[in-house]
């Protein structure tokens, strides 16, 4: 049974207490750090005063990265399937002749 941890993460000057599995800690801390870095980048690049807007931009950025990876993976899988089918056809032609 995994040990539960109580941690606090700070995002956009707010502290969020969480109870998590110990195996999740590293990922959550890295995610919070990445959010903070992105917040600073958006604040420096755009004249955004409202943290809500910056957080929405961060959420959109992260969500689009996840979606793009899913699209890329589907394209790679399709390409691999095509190559395997072509290889299978070559092997079948060679074995039959």
Automatic annotation (TrEMBL):
**GO process annotations (BP):** cell division
Q: Does the keyword Cell cycle apply?
A: yes
Q: Does the keyword Cell cycle apply?
A: yes
Q: Which UniProt keywords apply?
A: Cell cycle, Cell division
InterPro entries for the chain: Cell_div_ZapA-like, Cell_div_ZapA-like_sf
**Which superkingdom, per the lineage?**
Bacteria
One Pfam match, given by its short name, reads ZapA
Q: What protein name applies here?
A: Cell division protein ZapA
């Amino acid at each position: 049974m995994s040990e539960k941890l109580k941690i606090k993460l700070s995002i956009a000057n707010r502290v969020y207490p969480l109870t998590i599995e110990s195996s999740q800690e590293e990922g959550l801390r890295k995610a919070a750090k990445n959010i903070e870095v992105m917040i600073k980048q958006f604040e420096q690049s755009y004249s955004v005063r409202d943290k809500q807007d910056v957080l929405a931009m961060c959420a959109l950025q992260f969500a689009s990265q996840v979606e793009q990876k899913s699209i890329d993976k589907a394209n790679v899988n399709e390409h691999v399937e095509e190559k395997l089918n072509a290889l299978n056809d070559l092997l079948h032609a060679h074995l039959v002749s």
